[in-house]
């Protein structure tokens, strides 16, 4: 256990603008608490706090090393400090301010001391580059799917002649036809505005799908640099390979095989809807 190898733990409760810190002894006693702003000067202040109250072997227990704690985690890693991640607890909408933050910092330190298998912060660099590209591409894919569903809804409620023309087409043909629709002054306002909506939405679909393909190319380049052998496996494309590398970049991240379910080659997250 961690308590057997350190002289103390610095627990950190992370927020967007502030960081609450608690120095805790190996037996869980609170030595001192403090807080600091969540930027470089605050990080240095916390490091000085750690040197003062846990001058020997120490470890930092951070919440949210991939979000609000990312900057501090990177700073500490560069300083040669040992950092582990603890899970952020579920919190009520209304909290008690600084006092509650300090209690959470103490909890983070004690959780690190009590656990048998500590969680290492995610690796950054290429891994973080793949993560942000995957997340952005996924957002484009979801938005493209929503736009396609919007086209279907517009066709269902369109004026009879327009609906009859579009319903018999398959999805790619519908998108192409809708993108080429033209207004005619003789038509009613409803008809003309439906055409306007049907012409605008396919443009969004095409833009989003182009964006997703460009992001996939960027992901492929990084995967080829980091683990080209993954792409030679049956059923593993660049998106699946990148997700594997992101999820398994550090063996201490997961406690079960369930965390590996997402990168399945048949996962719908890896598919781009066809226009």
Detailed description of the structure:
The protein has 275 residues and is of the alpha/beta class. The chain is built from eight helices and five strands. The protein folds into two domains: 113 residues, Nucleotidyltransferase, domain 5; 145 residues, no CATH class. Strands 3-2-1-4-5 form a five-stranded mixed sheet. Strand 1 and strand 2 form a beta hairpin. The termini are far apart. About 7% of the residues have low confidence.
Shape: elongated
Portion of residues in helices?
40-55%
Strand order of the largest sheet: 3-2-1-4-5
> What letter string, H or E per element, gives the SSE order?
EEEHEHEHHHHHH
Low-confidence stretches: 251-270
- What structural category do the secondary elements indicate? alpha/beta
Tell me, rounded to a whole number, the average pLDDT.
Answer: 85
Main beta sheet: strand number and arrangement?
Answer: 5 strands, mixed
**Using DSSP, what is the number of strands?**
5
Give the distance, in angstroms, between the N- and C-terminal Cα atoms. Answer: 54 Å
Counted by DSSP, the helix tally is 8
Percent strand: 5-15%
Q: Over all CA atoms, what is the radius of gyration?
A: 26 Å
């Amino acid at each position: 256990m961690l308590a057997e190898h350190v002289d103390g733990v610095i627990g950190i409760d992370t927020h967007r603008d502030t960081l609450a810190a608690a120095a805790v002894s190996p037996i869980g006693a609170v030595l001192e608490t403090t807080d600091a702003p969540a930027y470089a000067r605050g990080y240095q202040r916390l490091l000085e706090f750690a040197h003062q109250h846990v001058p020997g072997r120490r470890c930092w227990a951070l919440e949210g090393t991939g979000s609000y704690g990312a900057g501090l985690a990177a700073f500490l890693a560069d300083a040669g400090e040992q950092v582990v991640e603890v899970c952020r607890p579920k919190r009520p909408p209304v909290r008690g301010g600084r006092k509650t933050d300090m209690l959470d910092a103490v909890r983070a330190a004690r959780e690190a001391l009590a656990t048998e298998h500590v969680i290492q912060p995610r690796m950054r660099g290429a891994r973080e580059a793949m993560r942000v590209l995957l997340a952005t591409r996924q957002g484009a894919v979801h938005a493209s799917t929503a736009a396609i569903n919007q086209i279907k809804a517009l066709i269902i409620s369109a004026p009879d002649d327009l609906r009859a023309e579009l319903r018999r087409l398959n999805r790619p043909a519908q998108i192409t036809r809708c993108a080429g629709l033209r207004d005619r002054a003789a038509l009613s306002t409803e008809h003309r505005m439906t055409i306007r909506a049907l012409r605008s939405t396919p443009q969004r679909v095409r833009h989003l799908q182009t964006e997703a393909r460009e992001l996939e190319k960027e992901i492929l380049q990084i995967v080829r640099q980091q683990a080209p052998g993954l792409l030679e496996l049956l059923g593993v494309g660049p998106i699946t390979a990148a997700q594997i590398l992101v999820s398994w970049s550090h063996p201490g991240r997961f406690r079960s095989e369930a965390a590996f379910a997402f990168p399945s080659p048949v996962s719908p997250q890896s598919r781009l809807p066809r226009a």
